[in-house]
Amino acid sequence: MKPTSFQNTATVIFLGIGIFLLPQTLFSKTEEFFHTGTTVYDLYSERIIDTTEISISATIDEIEIRAMESQSPLRLQPAAISQIGAIELQNLNPRTISSAFNFSAGATIEERATASYRVNIRGSSLRSPFGVRNVKVYWNGFSFTTSEGTTPLNFLDISLITNATILKGPSGSLYGAGNGGVILFNNQPQKYNSVKTSASAGSYQLQRQAIQLNYREDHFSIYSGYSQMSSDGYRNHSGMDRKNFFFSSSFFPSATQKIDFHLLYADLFYQLPGGLNFEQFQENSRQARPNAAEQNSSIESQLLFTGISAEHQLSSNWMNRTYLSMSTIDFDHPFILDYKTELQREWAARTVFYYNGLFRLQSVRLALGAEYQSGRKTASNFANIGGNRDSLRFADDIRTANVSTFQQLEWKPGNGWLITAALSQNFTRYQVDRFADNIGTGPWLVKRSFDPVWIPRLGFSKELSDQSVIFGLFSSGFSPPTLDEFRTNEGSVNLDLEAERGWNYELGYRFRDRSEFFQANLSVFYFNLDQSISTFTNPDGVVLFRNSGATDQYGVELELDWRPYSSDFGLLREIALKHAYTGHFFYFRESLRAEEDISGNQLTGVAPHKLNNRVGIQFAGGFQWQFFHLYSDQLPLDDRNMVFQEARHILGTKIDWNYQLGNQWKINAGLGIENLTDLDYSLGNDLNAFGGRFYQTAPGRNWHADLGVVYLF
């Protein structure tokens, strides 16, 4: 039986759709830009201003983003924001997005196994034994996070991302539930008509090929591509194969309208070697967990995503952006203990109305919007006999829904001040209908709703000069359990699991000198989180979840970019350095467990100190050399703080050559080496693992060679 609340909440889908059909004669022409990602569209001249090629020494004023639904430059935003440009994504390691992300303070992407990602923004991975949770992800403005609260990030090849924006800390006042933060991915076409081909090869039989087409005329553009990547992996039973095809098109029906269409198909297979205990890790860190290969522990999944978005300048003051999307995920997962199959369908809509005007002769901007997500999934669990699906254990029909309404006021009262106030209401509901059961617990029907919660946000920024800005922020966070936390792998339902709720207090400072040779971003914050959710593993190896109590999270995040040398002449052209320091001092404040008191312990999986350094040297002739250093302090692997991951230093280097042949050909070649010292370490540890199976071995010393050719026409 379909819940009534699902029918009621679905009405928000239709907000704003009528703007597609409104006649052109109703609106007057204005000389304003529409800002989408890092590409600025002037709909009257229909030209594209390319801002994707941003080096590590680029100034933050060059990057104008739509973060926090604002058109103010990034340096004025009252929030902790990191930006990753196209050059960083492509120049570090074209195999994975994790390399570029890990040079941002406060945020990392851990690759637990080949193509198995876990995102950690300010300790959010405490709830993620695998996958991406407690973080909201958008791709080209569409929610890539499902209504279940998880994000299939490993479907995305790096060719599907031209730039990324990381909003750190609670952002629920505009983007729905989640305490970790928000990641905004964009996949924008390049400035010129072109065909780009690229290929990579490397250690562990790494192979990657990709081709992309950019084509545009006055009133439309096409951006499409295909990529394929495979690897045997560093560990036994850790191979992967991924294929991506995407097609994006932009259409300008009038001077005040823009419509985008996106299609993405991904086919992904990867093996799961599993966690090792300390003795196994010391004996042979490349081995798989016992029975992982015999039971064919792996994931094979396909994604079909389609989305359409529209921008419409309704008048000289009002504008609307609306996004509609649907997706299907087919999921097949043999594991050591069982065999899961799932067929999932998702529908989503987001619409935002913007008003730009004056209040007391000063600029004011109002954003009013709503977001709706709904999903339905058939999930079956079978016995696993030698990697093959055997008898049915149970099967569920699952329905999920998320609704968020939000509003934000942005006011510039003058004298360099920017004040923002936002408020949202969020609602989540799960329904699990067990229609088949052979383990003696059903059939049954369970519904769980997390009542609407108001989430406020208040921020300010003040320009101290044309070089420096300070900002302050007070925001609330709300994060209900994801479906995988509410309904666990072995089929039980945890009705006692409560949503996390927190309050974040933050101050920040940004500086950029007039010569644009030095810039700094500093944030200090305190996040008070109640009902924090953490993982534990039962004797059967099933990951379960529980509320662990309250936490105190104190943080310092610092990013420095500077160019001590720059010249247009001679052999040496530029020296650029980037440093990112993360100080996260997170502790359990109160324990909800009767069996033990963990108050005062460090938060599981969070290193107190991290320091990442990068040096880039550019030479005449298009040559560039980069050197990387990543340091992570020791971190606790269990809530009791009985086991710690050792501190580590990871080194890497890369050489690139860029050459332009005439006016139509561009060539790029690169050679990179990671983990130069061949350190044996674990990345993406399994937290609170039963039997001490904490360790997911990272690759040893490895290399990759890359070649790209661009033809302009």
Keywords:
713 residues, mainly beta, Maltoporin, Chain A, 22-stranded antiparallel β-barrel, five-stranded mixed β-sheet, 6 helices, 36 strands, 4% helix, globular, disordered N terminus
Write structural notes for this entry.
- The protein has 713 residues and is mostly beta strands.
- It has a single domain, classed as TonB-dependent receptor, beta-barrel domain (Maltoporin, Chain A), CATH 2.40.170.
- Helices cover 4% and strands 57% of the residues.
- It is built from six helices and 36 strands.
- The protein has a 22-stranded antiparallel barrel.
- A hairpin with a 5-residue loop joins β28 and β29.
- The chain starts with a helix and ends with a strand.
CATH architectural designation: Beta Barrel
Structural class: mainly beta
Average pLDDT level:
87
Distance between the termini: 57 Å
Cα Rg: 25 Å
Number of helices: 6
Globally, the shape reads globular
CATH class: Mainly Beta
Low-confidence stretches: 1-64
Report the major sheet. 22 strands, antiparallel, barrel
Number of domains: 1
Question: For this structure, what is the CATH homologous superfamily?
Answer: TonB-dependent receptor, beta-barrel domain
Name the beta content range: over 45%
Report the count of strand segments.
36
Helix content: under 10%
CATH topology: Maltoporin, Chain A
Which helices and strands appear, and what pairs or packs with what?
Elements: H1 4-9, E1 34-36, E2 39-42, E3 47-49, E4 80-84, H2 86-92, H3 98-101, E5 107-113, E6 116-121, E7 132-133, E8 135-139, E9 142-143, E10 150-151, E11 163-168, H4 172-175, E12 181-186, E13 194-202, E14 206-216, E15 220-231, E16 240-254, E17 257-271, H5 278-283, E18 298-313, E19 318-334, E20 339-359, E21 362-385, E22 388-414, E23 417-437, E24 444-463, E25 468-479, H6 483-486, E26 500-512, E27 518-537, E28 543-566, E29 572-591, E30 609-619, E31 623-632, E32 635-636, E33 644-645, E34 648-661, E35 665-674, E36 702-712
Parallel strand pairs: 8-12
Antiparallel strand pairs: 1-2, 2-3, 4-11, 5-6, 7-10, 8-9, 11-12, 13-14, 13-36, 14-15, 15-16, 16-17, 17-18, 18-19, 19-20, 20-21, 21-22, 22-23, 23-24, 24-25, 25-26, 26-27, 27-28, 28-29, 29-30, 30-31, 31-34, 32-33, 34-35, 35-36
